[in-house]
């Protein structure tokens, strides 16, 4: 039996959370080794497992994979969440890149002060409501299917739901002007593997707090 993917990252969302979401959506069990000490990180470096000296790191199929988008695209292809042809895959890439860009705006606030975060979060919500969500609302309207690409559940759907829920943590009414996205959220949330991942006790991580930020600073010596 093939071994489970093993994830190396901090005990928090950051750049690993979308990878957790994708594996969970595919129904794949995975292991995690949380980085809590500088020594753990230095050992990964010494062993040559961090290609560019950065996490996330995913051990899968005998490979040590780094770089978030590369990991996500490999896993999407491996677990049949990457469309049926090149035209579908490029659309999945476009949509997934957009939602990842939106979520990385939140990740980028980790070390900011509460006042700075509040200001940034308001800007991010505005960006979601004026740049990103109108586009996805139109995609769903024009496409007329349950999913973003083709009529099959894909990486793009997984990541859009992740982004929606992250924006709702910042502003509960962020979808008020987007009825098709509301319906999409409900539909995708009820897919069995997703529904399981959204339950308490799953490997889904909570929003970052000050302790998480302190651990990241300590491990990376920032």
Question: Would you kindly provide a written description of the structure presented here, covering whatever features stand out?
Answer:
By secondary structure, the chain is of the alpha+beta class. Helices cover 56% and strands 7% of the residues. The chain contains nine helices and four strands. The protein has helices at residues 17-25, 38-46, 68-78, 86-107, 114-143, 155-170, 179-189, 192-197, 210-220; strands spanning 6-9, 31-34, 57-60, 63-66. The chain has a four-stranded mixed sheet, covered by helices on one side. A hairpin with a 2-residue loop joins strand 3 and strand 4. Helix 4 packs parallel to helix 6 and helix 6 packs across helix 7. The radius of gyration is 18 Å and the shape is globular. The protein starts with 5 loop residues before the first strand and ends with a helix. The relative contact order is 0.16. The model has no long low-confidence stretch (mean pLDDT 93).
User: In angstroms, what separates the terminal alpha carbons?
Assistant: 40 Å
Task: Give the radius of gyration.
Answer: 18 Å
The pLDDT mean sits at 93
| Strand count | 4
Describe the sheet with the most strands: 4 strands, mixed
Strand content: 5-15%
Number of helices: 9
User: How are the strands of the largest sheet arranged?
Assistant: 2-1-3-4
Basic shape? globular
SS-derived structural category: alpha+beta
Chart the SSEs and their pairings.
Layout: E1 6-9, H1 17-25, E2 31-34, H2 38-46, E3 57-60, E4 63-66, H3 68-78, H4 86-107, H5 114-143, H6 155-170, H7 179-189, H8 192-197, H9 210-220
Parallel strand pairs: 1-2
Antiparallel strand pairs: 1-3, 3-4
Helix pairs in contact: 1-3, 1-6, 4-5, 4-6, 6-7
């Amino acid at each position: 039996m093939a071994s489970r993917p093993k994830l190396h990252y901090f005990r928090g969302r950051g750049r690993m959370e979308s990878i957790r979401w994708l594996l969970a959506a595919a129904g794949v069990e995975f292991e995690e080794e949380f980085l809590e000490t500088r020594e753990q990180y230095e050992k990964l470096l010494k062993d040559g497992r961090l290609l560019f000296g950065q996490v996330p790191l995913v051990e899968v199929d005998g490979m040590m994979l780094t770089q978030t988008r590369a990991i996500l695209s490999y896993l999407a292809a491996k677990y049949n969440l990457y469309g049926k042809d090149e035209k579908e895959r490029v659309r999945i890439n476009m949509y997934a890149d957009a939602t990842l860009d939106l979520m990385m705006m939140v990740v980028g606030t980790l070390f900011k002060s509460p006042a700075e975060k509040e200001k940034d979060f308001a800007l991010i919500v505005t960006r979601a409501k004026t740049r990103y969500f109108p586009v996805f609302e139109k995609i769903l309207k024009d496409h007329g299917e349950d999913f973003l690409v083709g009529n099959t559940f894909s990486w793009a759907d997984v990541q859009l739901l992740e982004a929606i829920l992250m924006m709702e943590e910042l502003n509960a009414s962020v979808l008020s002007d987007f009825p098709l996205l509301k319906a999409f959220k409900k539909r995708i949330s009820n897919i069995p593997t997703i529904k399981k991942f959204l339950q308490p006790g799953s490997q889904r991580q909570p929003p970052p707090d000050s302790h998480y930020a302190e651990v990241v600073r300590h491990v990376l010596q920032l």
